[in-house]
Amino acid sequence: MNDRHMLVAGAANMFIAVAAGAFGAHGLKTVLSPEMLVIWQTGVTYQASHGLGLLLLCALWTRFSVTLLSRAAGLMLAGIILFSGSLYALALTGIRPLGAITPFGGLCFLLAWAMLVMAGWRRRG
Q1: Would you give the end-to-end CA distance of the chain in angstroms?
Q2: Where are the transmembrane segments (predicted)?
Q3: Quick check: 79 and 45 in contact, CB under 8 A?
Q4: How many CA atoms lie within 13 A of 27 on its CB side?
Q5: Structure-derived torsion over alpha carbons of residues 40, 44, 47, 50, reported in degrees to the nearest 10
Q6: Measured between alpha carbons, how far is 38 from 40 in angstroms, rounded to an integer?
Q7: CB atoms within 10 A of CB 115
Q8: Which of 37, 60, 68, 112 can bridge 76 by disulfide, Cβ–Cβ 3.0-4.6 Å?
Q9: CA–CA separation, 106 vs 50, rounded Å?
Q10: Rounded to the nearest 10 degrees, how much is the dihedral formed by the CA atoms of 94, 95, 96, 101?
Q11: Would the pLDDT of 123 be above 90?
């Protein structure tokens, strides 16, 4: 993933997170239980924070190892799909086993941030 891809992925995920947040607050409020709305909102929160993380990686592109930043971006994107995606699906369907996917997304998030730590530690120049 290059810096242009990170910018597009970060901005697209922020767009989706804002739309999903509004949809949850207005469109799903009368449809989902309070418990499922909290699950939905958790997905939105993590999608938004890691959408911003992708934009951060893009901003750091010229200062740190592009290999590590690229890997971190891929992991953040995978984390958004697995973590937030599984929570959205769980909230909408009520199928509890979907929650078993969520920790894999969380692991992707942790690995992505660890990659950024490594990039900072190994900073070039």
Answers
A1: 22
A2: 37-61, 73-95, 101-121
A3: no
A4: 8
A5: -130
A6: 5
A7: 23
A8: 112
A9: 11
A10: -120
A11: no
Task: Tell me the percentage of the chain whose pLDDT exceeds 90.
Answer: 94
| Total domains in the fold of the chain | 1
Give the pLDDT confidence score for residue 66 in this predicted structure. Answer: 93
The two structure tokens encoding residue 123: 């900073």
Number of Cβ within 10 Å of residue 6's Cβ equals 26
Radius of gyration of the chain (CA): 16
φ/ψ region of 65 (left if φ > 0, alpha if ψ in -120 to 50, else beta) reads beta
Residues in CB range of 24: below 8 A, 6 or more apart: 32, 37, 40, 41, 44
Q: Are 99 and 31 in contact (CB under 8 A)?
A: no
Contact indicator for 13, 47 with CB cutoff of 8 Å: yes
